[in-house]
Structures are given as structure tokens and as C-alpha cells.
């Protein structure tokens, strides 16, 4: 024990030496007491802390490394938490967490009961707004800026940090548009790293790459405007008129239109986002300027760790790695079932090779959903539209209207942003678009902002949709094959994150009758109805319960939430007095609710027990841990089965 104590003491001393300055920073106020010449060393230590922790406790790596200097500069210049920093795309915020009282707890990041994967106001007063998804920072920060003005808190600064591809999201432009006409002093920082998760795409990306403005010009303009304010000849209305005239004159002289200044938002940059002292200097210079303003910085995703700089997509969330060599510790998957996403990607390519109408669409997730398999083989038939889920759906609808057959793959939780588009632009017109919802159900360590909890409930009420969930990889392939056959209309296929259950997954594909479920096992005492791969857990629980109780338990795979297999449900209603429904989604409005409605409408009265996600946001942890907590694993289902 003494030996172990000595080893721990030595390691602790080494870490104290490694993080000499960082160890003294418990809050941003401690950071602000340092002299400016110490900031580069703070950045070095903060970057090393992120590398050290994430090498053994996986998380979002490259994005947080890229904003280390920005994070330090922001907390050095602004009086946080009174001043508000609103992060966009929360995987940029690891450095922010470490500097705001969570340094020692950072080793619990993304673990069950540990600190949350993304900023959350319920965790820290420094986390001003929930930011698990993209493009909401400008709107939220503008709201805070307006609130500060209404409350007379004219000394409160509000900063929105947007980037990592999220400027392509429509909500970002809605926020910019409103910021241009609403009285506010909002500062928007555009972290331009030419990346989302995969490389950023589209005209906005190219525009930002080409955009150049003079820092010297902006400094002079600022000093002149301050002088005019002091002389009392530049009120708010004159200021706006002068900005409009000045922007027009500048556009004419440099023959370039700045989209931000075209909206009366002052533009500064672009500047080097890895020069912490210059960043702090510029922030001090512009923070008290009146009116909305935007600072454009260039950063490198994965900055400071060579392998991540060279392969930013791979190092977005690389898993465990050797921090010295950069070698990723990849688990040997030989002989294991494939990831559902890879079954999707390979099957899509197979189908596209025989059906020339098929195209693929994804909003910034080609590698995450494995659509990159199609894109590599048939680049002209795969479209990455950037972080723009609503556009992805309507774009798919437009192609379907004129004869193409889009497979539009969007993570379940991100599809929530495109709900109106599904109704208005797909379902009403009965367009043959295949909406593939990856990451449906519990996703694990990314937590409540990313769990695909609601898709069954929110898709079920929409007319004209077919909504299906495959039991395993063979079923996924056959559902994809079915969806691309003529006249199938809007078709939703949802499947989970992670691996399936079949090593031999590549089966011949055949049509599945729409709205037709399967009886997997006969029984006479209890009927179990499952939807999707959670049926595998139910299968194990049924075997266990039958062995323990001697009861005979039937198992039905519903396959389709919409339309329901009514003949199968009539059989269950007539035959069974005890029914269990099991789904990987919220209970309210989901598959279990649909079964209850059917039984009530047809005057069947079985005792129905539902298994699924509770009416609360499930926190983060491993999928296995969360299934257990929610009573959706084999043990939880077994307990329900023996409770009759």
C-alpha cells in the first residue's frame, strides 16, 4: 500500500508540473489574474490536458483542440459567467469545461453520472444554453442580448461562438437576419475551420475561404466612430445610415460584397484563431462597440496534435489512442456483426448499382452514416448538403418529384429539425423519398441531445408515411429493397447506433409486404410485441422467463409501426389476456400507444404492459447502462414478463 501511495504521489507531482498554470485555474477569474504573456502557456497546458484525458476516455477530440486559444481569450477578456458565451456545436467546449470549475472532474466526461458531454445550464452557470445540436447560438445569444438591454444591463456582453460547419444551418441565417434589425450589441465569433464532422461543403464554405478584410481598416473605422460618438454627431440612426453607405462604398472599391456587412453587421477579420494574444487584443478592442458585430477567425481542427490535423474527420471522435504515437487503439472486429450504418451504406450501393434512379443525401454525415461508401463509388449520385436537415429533406423531395429516388439519411435526433419539411414537402405529395433514421433509440455517451427517442412518436401521426424498423441486418436490407420498388411512397426506416446481431449479414434481398409483421414464436399465455432490434433482447428475456415460470410466451415482430398489421393484432386481441409491448423510443405516443389504441378501438381488453423510454430526458452513459436504468435490457424485460 505504501508503494502504491508513493507511485500515486509521484504521478500527481508530475501532473502538477505538467499543468503548472492550469492547476491554479479553478475559475475564469483565476485566469484573468494572469498576465497576458502567460496565456500561450495556458493554451499549451489546456491542449495537453485535453489530449491526455481523451486518449483514455474517448470523446470529441479535434473540435475542442481547434478552439483552445479562442476559449482562453474569451474567458480572459469577458467577465464570465456574468457575460454570456453561447457555444454552438457543443463538442467545441471541452476547454471551456476545464477552465470553468470542471478540471478535476473532466475525467468523468461522458461517463454515467459524470459531467455531461455538451454544455448544459443544469451543470454549470458558465454553460449559458444547451448546445448539443448545431446552428442555434446566434438566435439564443440574440435573445440574451435583447433581455440584457430590456433589464438595463448595458454592461453585460453576449457572445455567440458559431462554426465547425454550423453556419450552413438555416437557423443561423434566421438569427443573423433578426440580429441585423433588432437593437443589440451581440458579438458573433465565426470559428472557420472548413469542417463540420466531415469536410464542410457548399457555397458558404467557399465564401468564407475567400473573404478578406483589412484589420487596420477596421481599427481606424472604430476609432473614428468613437470620436464621432464623443462629439455627439453619431446617433443610432445616423450610425446605421453611415454603415450602409460605408459598406456600399467598400464593396464598390474592393469589388466584393460582404454578406455580413450587407446585413448591417460589422465584420472583422479573418484573423489567426491560434494567436491567443492577438485574439485577446482584438476582443478587447471590439467588445464595447455598439451594434451587432462578427469576428471571423481561422482555426485548424485538431490543432496541436499532428495526426488530428492531417485527418480531421477520423479524429473528430477517434476513440482511445496512444497520445505519444498517435496510433488509434482499434478493437479487432473480425467475426463480429457489422454496424447497422455499414449495412445501410453497402446495401445502398448495391441497390444503386441496379437502380439508376437512386441517389443518396446526407446533412454533413457521410462517414457517420456510411453514405461515403456510395459517394466513393458513384460520386455523382451522393450529396452532402452540409448541416441543413430541413433542406436535405426538401431537396430530396424535389428530386423525387422529378423522377429520382433519394435515400435521405439523417440521425434520428437531427431529423427533429426537419419535421415540417417531412410533412409539407414529402408526405402531402406522397413523394417516394426513403428517410433513413440512423442512431434511433438510445445512443449512449452523447446523452439527451442525441438520443433518437422521439421518431416513432413524431412520425406515427403523419398521413401517407410508411414507418418501419428492422429486427436485424437481413430485415434492414429487405426493407431498403422494398422502399425503392415502384410506387411505395414516403418510407421511413429507423435503426440504432452500433452493431447488429448477424455476422453473416449479406443476404439476398426480397420484398416485404407493407404493413405485414411476423410471428417469431408461438405461445398461449403472454404475447410480446416488439419493434426493431430491441426484439433481440426480448427474445433472450422470453427464454429466461419461460424457463423460470413455465409460462408459454408468444413473440411477434411488428416490423411496421405504420401501417399496423391489423390481422396480427386481431389475432393477439382475441387470443391473449396479457400483452407486453417493447420499443426503443418514448412510451408516450409510440408503438405501445398505437397497440393500446387498436385494442380499445376494436373492444379488446388485454392487460397491456409497455416497455420503453420514460417521460423524461435520459442522461448520458453507455448504451448498456442506460438500457438497464430504463428497464429495457434482458433483465428489465424479464422482470416485466414474470410480473403477470
UniProtKB/TrEMBL annotation:
Protein name: 1-deoxy-D-xylulose-5-phosphate synthase
A Pfam family it matches: Transket_pyr
InterPro entries: Dxylulose-5-P_synthase, THDP-binding, Transketo_C/PFOR_II, Transketolase-like_Pyr-bd, Transketolase_BS, Transketolase_C
MF-aspect GO terms: 1-deoxy-D-xylulose-5-phosphate synthase activity; magnesium ion binding; thiamine pyrophosphate binding
Coiled coil, from the record: none
Record EC number: 2.2.1.7
Pathway: Metabolic intermediate biosynthesis; 1-deoxy-D-xylulose 5-phosphate biosynthesis; 1-deoxy-D-xylulose 5-phosphate from D-glyceraldehyde 3-phosphate and pyruvate: step 1/1
Keyword Magnesium included in the entry's annotation: yes
Physiological role: Catalyzes the acyloin condensation reaction between C atoms 2 and 3 of pyruvate and glyceraldehyde 3-phosphate to yield 1-deoxy-D-xylulose-5-phosphate (DXP).
Annotated positions binding thiamine diphosphate: 91, 132-134, 165-166, 193, 305, 389
Residue span(s) of domain Transketolase-like pyrimidine-binding: 338-503
Amino acid at each position: 500500500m505504501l508503494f502504491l501511495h508513493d507511485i500515486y504521489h509521484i504521478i500527481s507531482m508530475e501532473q502538477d508540473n505538467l499543468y503548472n498554470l492550469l492547476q491554479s485555474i479553478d475559475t475564469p477569474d483565476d485566469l484573468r489574474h494572469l498576465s497576458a504573456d502567460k496565456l500561450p502557456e495556458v493554451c499549451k497546458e489546456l491542449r495537453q490536458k485535453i489530449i491526455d484525458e481523451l486518449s483514455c476516455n474517448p470523446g470529441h477530440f479535434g473540435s475542442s483542440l481547434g478552439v483552445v486559444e479562442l476559449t482562453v481569450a474569451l474567458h480572459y477578456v469577458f467577465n464570465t459567467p456574468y457575460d454570456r458565451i453561447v457555444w454552438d456545436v457543443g463538442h467545441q467546449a471541452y476547454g471551456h469545461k476545464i477552465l470553468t470549475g470542471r478540471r478535476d472532474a473532466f475525467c468523468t466526461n461522458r461517463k454515467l453520472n459524470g459531467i455531461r458531454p455538451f454544455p448544459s445550464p443544469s451543470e454549470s452557470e458558465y454553460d449559458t444554453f444547451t448546445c448539443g445540436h448545431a446552428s442555434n447560438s446566434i438566435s439564443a445569444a440574440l435573445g440574451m442580448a435583447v433581455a440584457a438591454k430590456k433589464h438595463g444591463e448595458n454592461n453585460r456582453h453576449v457572445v455567440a461562438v458559431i462554426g465547425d460547419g454550423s453556419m450552413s444551418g438555416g437557423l443561423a441565417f434566421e438569427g443573423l437576419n433578426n440580429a441585423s434589425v433588432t437593437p443589440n450589441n451581440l458579438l458573433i465569433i465565426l470559428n472557420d475551420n472548413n469542417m463540420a464532422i466531415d469536410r464542410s461543403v457548399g457555397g458558404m464554405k467557399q465564401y468564407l475561404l475567400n473573404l478578406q478584410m483589412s484589420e487596420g481598416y477596421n481599427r481606424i473605422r472604430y476609432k473614428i466612430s468613437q470620436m464621432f460618438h464623443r462629439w455627439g454627431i453619431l446617433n443610432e440612426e445616423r450610425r446605421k445610415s453611415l454603415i450602409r453607405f460605408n459598406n456600399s462604398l467598400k464593396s464598390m472599391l474592393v469589388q466584393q460584397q460582404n454578406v455580413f456587412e450587407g446585413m448591417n453587421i460589422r465584420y472583422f477579420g479573418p484573423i489567426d484563431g491560434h494567436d491567443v494574444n492577438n485574439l485577446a487584443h482584438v476582443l478587447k478592442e471590439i467588445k464595447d462597440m455598439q451594434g451587432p458585430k462578427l469576428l471571423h477567425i481561422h482555426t485548424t481542427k485538431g490543432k496541436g496534435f499532428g495526426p488530428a490535423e492531417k485527418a480531421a474527420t477520423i479524429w473528430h471522435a477517434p476513440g482511445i489512442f496512444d497520445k505519444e504515437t498517435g496510433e488509434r487503439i482499434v478493437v479487432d472486429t473480425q467475426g463480429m456483426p457489422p454496424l447497422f450504418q455499414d449495412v445501410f451504406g453497402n446495401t445502398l450501393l448495391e441497390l444503386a448499382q441496379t437502380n439508376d434512379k437512386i441517389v443518396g443525401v446526407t446533412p454533413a454525415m457521410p462517414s457517420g452514416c456510411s453514405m461515403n461508401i456510395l459517394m466513393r463509388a458513384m460520386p455523382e449520385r451522393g450529396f452532402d448538403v452540409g448541416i441543413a436537415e430541413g433542406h436535405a429533406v426538401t431537396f430530396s423531395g424535389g428530386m423525387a418529384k422529378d423522377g429520382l429516388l433519394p435515400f435521405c439519411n439523417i440521425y434520428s435526433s437531427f431529423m427533429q429539425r426537419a419535421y415540417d419539411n417531412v410533412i409539407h414537402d414529402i408526405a402531402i405529395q406522397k413523394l417516394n423519398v426513403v428517410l433513413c433514421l440512423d442512431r434511433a433509440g438510445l445512443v449512449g455517451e452523447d446523452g439527451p441531445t442525441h438520443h433518437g427517442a422521439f421518431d416513432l412518436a413524431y412520425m406515427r401521426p403523419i398521413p401517407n408515411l410508411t414507418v418501419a424498423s428492422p429486427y436485424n441486418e437481413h430485415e434492414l436490407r429487405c426493407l431498403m429493397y422494398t422502399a425503392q420498388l415502384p410506387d411505395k411512397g414516403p418510407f421511413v426506416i429507423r435503426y440504432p447506433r452500433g452493431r447488429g446481431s448477424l455476422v453473416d449479414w449479406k443476404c439476398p434481398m426480397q420484398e416485404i409486404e407493407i404493413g405485414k409483421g411476423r410471428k417469431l414464436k408461438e405461445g398461449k399465455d403472454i404475447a410480446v410485441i416488439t419493434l426493431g432490434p430491441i426484439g433481440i433482447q426480448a427474445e433472450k428475456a422470453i427464454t429466461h422467463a419461460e424457463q423460470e415460470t413455465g409460462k408459454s410466451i408468444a413473440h411477434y415482430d411488428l416490423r411496421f409501426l405504420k401501417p399496423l398489421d391489423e390481422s396480427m393484432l386481431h389475432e393477439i386481441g382475441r387470443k391473449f389476456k396479457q400483452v407486453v409491448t417493447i420499443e426503443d423510443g418514448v412510451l408516450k405516443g409510440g408503438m405501445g400507444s398505437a397497440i393500446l389504441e387498436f385494442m380499445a378501438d376494436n373492444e379488446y381488453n388485454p392487460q397491456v404492459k409497455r416497455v420503453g423510454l420514460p417521460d423524461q430526458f435520459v442522461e448520458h452513459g453507455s448504451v448498456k447502462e442506460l438500457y438497464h436504468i430504463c428497464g429495457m435490457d434482458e433483465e428489465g424485460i424479464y422482470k416485466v414478463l414474470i410480473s403477470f
